Amino acid sequence: MKPKIKKADLSNHVDIWNAVINVLSGDFPEDDEIYKEAFMVYNYFSEMDSGGHESLFNWGWEDIQEQGISKYISDLTANLEKIGANRYGRIMSAYGEEM
């Protein structure tokens, strides 16, 4: 289910930023493709900043197991390439399943 946020609660840029982070930090969205893409890319870069690929796979393991590592890597690679992060996409495509 998509999170609902009231526009009245978003009075400035900080409120908007915090709302976006709260939405993207929730449970893995399976029913909304755009939300899923944003969620995967946000979590990828968040985990890269805080601990690298090992951190990404440790924290997201349940979500990865549900869909299978091959599908997860394929989707993440496509999502990274969609935003122009081609180098990251190539790393995931080449080494993701080994990690």
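The record above closes out task 2.4. Task 2.5 opens with a second protein, given below.
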Amino acid sequence: MTRADATRARLLEAATEEFSRYGIAGARVDRIAAAAQANKNLIYVHYTNKETLFRAVFEAHVVRLLGEVPFSATDLPAYAGQLYEFFLDNPRLLRLAGWFRLEQGDYDEAVAAIARSNADKVAAIARAQADGRVDGRYPADVVLTLVLATAAAWGSGNPATVSTYDGPDPKIVRLAIEAAVRGVVAGKDSAA
């Protein structure tokens, strides 16, 4: 790894932490540079501005997610369970996604990787529905949204899951997520 690559990697890691805590508006370039042990000007050299750096951070995490969590339209319960575990292991991604939505708008249109991935997933679900492998009660885009939302429901940014205790056993949560998704995609005869 070159020195420039190492600096970029440190900047991305420091920016990930800063943006996941404070969002774009609250993040401070000075704190990012200090945490990365880099000159503040290097942020502008490598990323032009704070917004571009935020997008680079967010896109890097999205690309990692897309590469590490395999999608199967015919096994959506397992996909939802794997996605839940990824979010559990990478809580900053959901916080970054929340900040993106608040401060940048719809990331489907802004981040090409998400738009392509979601379009491909919706098409795969629709094909599986047409082949009878996935229940067709709900449109494919609704199914995908339910799968994604169910997997992300226990994310650190979801106020509905905040409690005074450590929370439920992640294994039990994963089983519940898979059962909920199975109920959506398996059809009324096999959902029980």
